Amino acid sequence: MMSCGDNVNKKSSAGGALNSSAAEKVYVAPGEQDEYYAFISGGYSGNLTVYGLPSGRLFKEIPVFSQFPTSGYGYSEETKPMLNTSHGFIPWGDSHHPDISQTEGVTDGRWIFINENNTPRIARIDLETFETVEIIEVPNSAGNHSSSFVTENTEYVVAGTRFSVPVPQQDISIKEYKGKFKGALSFIGVEKETGHMDIKFQLLMPGFNYDLSHPGRGDSHGWFFFTTYNTEEASTLLEVNASQNDKDFIAAVNWKKIEEYINNGGGKMMPSNYAHNVYDHNSHTATSTMKKEVRVIDPTEVPGAVYLLPTPKSPHGCDVSPDGKYIVGNGKLSANLTVHSFEKMQEAIKNEKFEGEAYGIPILSFEDVLAGQVEQAGLGPLHTEFDDKGNAYTTFFISSEVVKWKLGTWEVIDRKPTYYSVGHLTIAGGNSREPDGKYMFAMNKITKDRYLPTGPELEHSAQLYDISGEKMELLLDFPTHGEPHYAAAIKADKVAPNSKKFYKLSENTHPFAAKSEAETKVVREGNVVHVYMTTIRSHFSPDNIEGIKVGDKVYFHITNLEQDFDVPHGFAIIGQNNSELLIMPGQTKTSVWEPKQVGVWPFYCTDFCSALHQEMQGYIRVSPKDSDIELEWSLGEDVE
After folding, report:
1. What subcellular compartments does it reside in (predicted)?
2. Whole-structure pTM value
C-alpha cells in the first residue's frame, strides 16, 4: 500500500480506474436524480445512511438505535420511548444488516428492517417518511447478528443470536457453557398491511454461534438458512478453540413446518421481558410496551423442522441464489467456496443420508448435499450476492478482492481488487428473486491512501463497480459513515413516488398540538408548564413568555404550521440539556427545559428557513422560585 500522502492532489491517469469513461458513468448532472437508493448500515453509529447510486452522494442519515441531535430523535419526548429496552433507556446501538420488504420475492420499497447487535433489537423504517417507526427487542438473545432478513412475502423478519446464553438467563458458571447454553433463532411476524411486528416464535437451538442467515426462495421458500461457528461450544479464546472442528454447520430451518406445529398448539410460552416500541405518524408520538412472554420451540419436538449441513470451518456469510436452488456458505479458513444444493438436501432428507446428530438434530452428509465448489477462488471468503445473468460475486477479506463466478459451472470469470479488506457487497435486489445486474458496491474496512488523511481515523470506503459486462469495472470510491456492514439497494422509482412531502395538519392528533396561532397558549400545572407553540416562516408564537420560575419543568410542544415540502423549523434555547428539535411540516415535537438561573433567555430557529431566519427568535423571562409573577405570553406586542 502507498503512504497516506502519496495520492494527494494527483490526477487520475488516462488508464486509471477513474478515467473519463468511469466518471461519465457515475456523473449525475445538476437537477437530475440517481437511479438507485442504497441503504447502508451505520454499524456502531447505530443508524442507517441513505446514498444515491451511481453518484455515491449521501442523502440522509436515519436515526434508528442512537440518539441523534440533528433532529432530536431520542431526545424529544415523543421519540424517547423508541430507545426503551428491558435494560432501561439505551441511547446507542450497533446496526448491521438492513433488508427491504418483499412481495412475491421482489423488493417492494415499503419498509426496511435493520438489526441492533449489542442490545438485541429489530427496527422497521417506513420508506414513505424515512423514519424509524417500530423497534422490538429480541429476548433470549445476545449479539443479534444473523439479522435482519425477510422472507419472500415479508411474512417474517428473522433474527439469529451470535452469542448463545442461558435460556432463561440465570446465575451459572461460564464453564457450564457446553450443553447448557442455547442459541435463539427468532421469527418475528410482520402484519401484511401495516408492517406491525410481533415475535411469533423462538427456536431454541444448540449453543453454537449463529453468524448470518438468508431465506429460501422459489422451491426453497419456507426454509431459512443460518451459518454457525463454534460448534465446539468453547467459551474462551475462540480464535483457537472455535477452529478445532474440520466443519461447522449451516442450520436449515423449515419454518413452514414449525408454523403448522404452532397452529396445532405446539410450543410453550416462556416468561420473558422485552420492549416493543411503536411510533405513530398521526400523533407524532411513540409508545413503549413491555412484553412478558414469548413462545419457544424445542427443535427436537418438531421432526423434520431443522437439519444441519456440514460446511468448512468458521463460515461467515450465508447466501441463497435468486432461484433458491443454491446455498452458499463459505468457511473463512477455506480456500474454496462451498455451495450446497437445496434439491440434494431434500433428497438426502428423504433418504435419511445422515452422518450423525447434534443434540437430537440430524446432520446431513456433506457429500450428499454438496452442489459444487469454486476451487482456489481467493483468501478469506465472506459474502456472496447475485446478478440477473446467473453469476455470483463473493468478497475475500484477506486477499481484498471481489470474485465473479458462474452458478452451476463454478468457474471464476473475473476478479477485481478492493481497497482494502472488504466485508459485505451489495447488488440492488441481490437478496431477492429479481436482482439487478447493473452495479455492485463493496464495503471495505480499511481506507488508508484512498482519501485525504483526517488523523488516525478515516471513514470506511465503499467502491462502486459496473457489472453489466463480463468484466467488472471499478467506477467510484465514496466514504461511508460509522462501520458499514451490509446494505440494501433498490431502484429509486419504487420508493421516490411514495415519499411523504409533509404531514397534514388536519391529521395531526398530538395531544399538545396547536394547529393555528389562535390555539397557542401557556398552561401551568404546579411547577410544570406546558407551552403550546407554533412555528412558521418566520416567527414563533408566542415569542415572548414571562412568569416562568427557577425549578419549573417547561414542556415546549412545538407544531410546525408549514404545509409545504422541505420546510422544517428548529428550536433551541440556552440551557437545553438534551438537544435541539427539528420539526417537519405539520409535525409536533416536545422538548423539556428546566431553567436553573434567573434571567431573560432567548430561543431561536436552528434551521435556516427563510430570508428572515435570523429574526426567528423569542425570549423567556425566568424569575426566582418564590416569585409571584403570573404567566403572560404574546406575539407581536410587548408583554406588559
Report:
1. Cell envelope
2. 0.95
